Structure prediction request, 356 residues.
Amino acid sequence: MTPVELSRTVLRAVRRAVDEGELSVVVPVRAVVTPPGPGGCGDYATNIALQLARPAGRPARQVAEILRPHLTRSEGVADVAITGPGFLNIRLGGGAGASLVREIQRRRDAYGHGDILAGQIVPLRVPYDIRAEVVADTLVRIVATQGGRAEVHHIHIPPSPAEPPHINAPQADPARPHRLHRPRPQITTLRPTPAPEDPTPLGPDAARWALLHPASHDRPRISADHLLQRESNPLFRVRYAHARTRALTRNAAALGCTGDPGDVPEDVPGGGELVGALAGYPAVLTQAALHRAPDRLARHLVTTADALLAFQHTVLPLGDEKPSAAHRARLALAEAAGTVLAGGLSLLGISAPDYL
Prediction:
């Protein structure tokens, strides 16, 4: 079951609870499903009970208790636990990892794309500053993954990182004092903390990473450290992890082995973390678009890369060992990680070489 399918399963559980008179709410359009946070458990978690608590007039944990049996009876769901103020933590039955890999194989670079901004125009005002320009250029692509269209407008106001993004409100029509204009698209003024020096000597990839990886309120570090091929360099780890997935495919082909989606046991080093990172990628893209924060995508790519680098050693047979179904499943998972890493780097405007 993919995150999209599980989201639909959660909504069906809400609908059943409403139909049976246990809840009196409007069934929402979508349910957010993400990997469990700190203190969570299982494969996925949803905050749907917290979302429905106020309209239902009940505590969130009570809403979660109502939804739990409906979710537990859903096909593909093995168990549901409630944690914190009312988070529903869902453990899937067999096939969760395999379904996720198949989804990534099917959608390729479009994996993680959604429609939460479908048909919306997102105006971005930016000063004439290299970091703001790079952030805006990246957001054009990220917003497009969610169905929106970002439009960049330049302003001459000096950037001020302490000032929050400006959002314009509906304006009264002076000719019609008792009526309002139709709400205008929300305008975001991007004023990330400027770089202390020109990053272009680092080259296009390292320069973009140096400007995009820190949060907008943090001052970017312009240093040759971004060029080092060392574990301490996050950009190197992400690009190296992608290159490793390509190398695994080449080496597997030499052994006559191809990837075939299957479940990876939880005790395989890095396997659970990698599945969680891949499952969480769509939510990260959504949040990066909604919050105009490409740094969220950059940091998630580091998380994905670190999980892949811990997992890679389990993919291919060792010594005289023959390729098995387990190896083919692990290879398919590694290749799916390569697809996500390449897609994420592309959205940041950074190359993903096959050899590094």
Summary: The first helix runs from residue 3 to 19. DSSP finds ten helices and nine strands in the chain. Confidence is low (pLDDT under 50) at residues 162-183.
